[in-house]
Amino acid sequence: MMRLLWLSALACNGNAHALLNYPGFKVWQKEFEWLYHPLLPSEYSFKEVEKGMAEGCDVLLVDGTLEEGYVKYRRPYMELLEHYGKQAHHIVTVGTCATFGGIFAQGGKGRSGLHFRGDERLDIFKNFWQKSISLPGCPVQPEVLAGTLSLLKRKTDIPLDPLRRPKYYYAYTVHDGCIRNEYFEYKIDEHRFGRLEGCMFYDHGCQGTYTHGSCNKILWNGLGSKTRNGQPCMGCTEPDFPKENLWQTPKHMGIPARMPLGVPRRAYLSLAGIAKAFRIERFYTPLMKEE
Amino acid sequence: MKSSTKEERRLQILSGALKLFAQKGFHATTIPDIARHIGMSVGNFYNYFPSKEILAQEILRYISAYLGKRIRKINESALSSREKIRGIVETYFETAQNEPEMIDFFLRVYLSNREVFGEGCEGMICVNEFVTEIMIFFDDGVARGELKNQDFFSAFGLFMGYLGGMVFLAGESILPKPMEAYIDDISMNIYNALKVA
Ligand code: SF4
Ligand code: SF4
């Protein structure tokens, strides 16, 4: 059994609900024991957790945006983190709020993630850095959370990127596996919400090409993803989430202001110019004829 | 005399044909004319270009690459957008002066014989190098807050139409002064039209 302790600060419970919707949850949870989780049967009550009684935590799961001076029930939240963080073997920041600050960091001063404020590295919990793993996402993909914990349980070595995100899940971009890739290649943005045609990069603010995540590789609850279902990726796994004007692509005289990850501007423009020259009829015919 | 390499020979054909097209017009120039002009057999010509259309497309790519390279230098310099505009205007006029056939080809063959540039030159494929540099120029200018963020083609048409028009007027000997005399004013007009309000 691996013992888990879940501590929330400023959070919407989205990450907890995402985990509850993990299709393999029933089987998965047999290997884990909750010292404390806000929604699941747990060994300790929060009052006991707050008193420091929940001993022997293997993984501390940190959820929600941290705020200076935030008191959870009666005890400063930072103190709770210190206390359980010290004894935990691993610390996992669950979701973008706990990782980078996320949405709640927009609403007040002195708010951040455990190790980052946006992409700025913080020092408050620097002694935890080595044992921390970041699992951003708004919310985190349940497969990513359950999968990472399973890997930790099996003592698998997990390669991490510089923001401490597991590469197994975050080395990909959301653009990888998006079923609209052909439209991207030929520069066709005919997107309407919920429709299956067109890429959303050019006009509709899709951030799939520079967002690290598995959304189109591991489908949500085995079913779909934003881009598969007709909504642009909002880049929720990145330090700069949430951006403003989410459904618009900032442009300079019609040229996207931000290039896909690692693509040089001149090369992109040159290729785009060529790709645009083709008019491939099949991309302009509705996929569903009766539409 | 050492015979020239295949690539050199290709370039000779391109520039020879370019001259003839400029003199006699695209349709009036035949492949035997071009072959004779360069001093090669018609049979040998076909080893280089399978048709007059393909030759014309290659010429277009060649000119686009020529201009593109020059504008790329300007783009990669530390100049402001305003100074870059002057650089591009100068380059264009210089080319019109030193390689008049090039700009002529652009204006008289490319723009007025669209059927020749259908298959193989769809959209901007054959002028890609040139257009890409103009895009980079606009993109940089907007990113630096120097140029107004507007529709690409309104800006492109304004810029290129103006330059093309001036070269055309000069070619028809309608301009009272030599082209260089207009560089400052033209650059300023373009800048005023493109800059942020
Ligand atoms: S919709 Fe987004 S993720 Fe999909 S191909 Fe376009 S840019 Fe990539
Ligand atoms: S598709 Fe983009 S915005 Fe949606 S969950 Fe995945 S990373 Fe976040």
Give the percentage of residues in beta strands of chain A: 5-15%
Order of strands in the sheet with most strands of chain A: 2-1-3-7-11
Total DSSP E strands of chain B: 0
Integer average pLDDT of chain A: 94
Low-confidence spans of chain A: none
- Series of H and E elements of chain B: HHHHHHHHH
Name the shape of chain A in a single word.
elongated
Strand content of chain B: under 5%
Output the structural class of chain A.
alpha/beta
Rg of chain B (C-alpha, Å): 18 Å
Task: Summarize model confidence as the mean pLDDT of chain B.
Answer: 92
Weakly predicted, low-confidence segments of chain B:
none
Instruction: Give the number of helices of chain A.
Output: 10
Cα separation of the termini of chain B: 62 Å
The secondary structure category of chain B is: mainly alpha
Largest interface: A-B, 15 and 22 residues
The oligomeric state is: heterodimer
Describe the structure.
The complex is a heterodimer of chains A (291) and B (197). Chain A is built from ten helices and 13 strands. Chain A has helices at 14-20, 25-28, 46-50, 77-87, 95-100, 142-153, 167-170, 181-185, 226-229, 265-276; strands spanning 2-8, 32-36, 59-63, 66-67, 71-72, 75-76, 90-94, 111-112, 116-117, 120-121, 132-135, 251-252, 255-256. In chain A, the strands form five sheets. A five-stranded parallel sheet of chain A has the order 2-1-3-7-11, with helices on both faces. Chain A is elongated. The termini of chain A are far apart. Chain B is mainly alpha-helical. Chain B is 69% helix and 0% strand. Chain B is built from nine helices and no strands. The longest helix of chain B has 24 residues, at 52-75. The radius of gyration of chain B is 18 Å and the shape is elongated. The model of chain B has no long low-confidence stretch (mean pLDDT 92). At the A-B interface, β12 and α10 of A face α7 and α8 of B. Bound molecules: iron/sulfur cluster (2 copies). One iron/sulfur cluster (SF4) is lined by residues 174-175, 178, 180-181, 184, 199-201, 206, 208-209, 227, 233 of chain A.
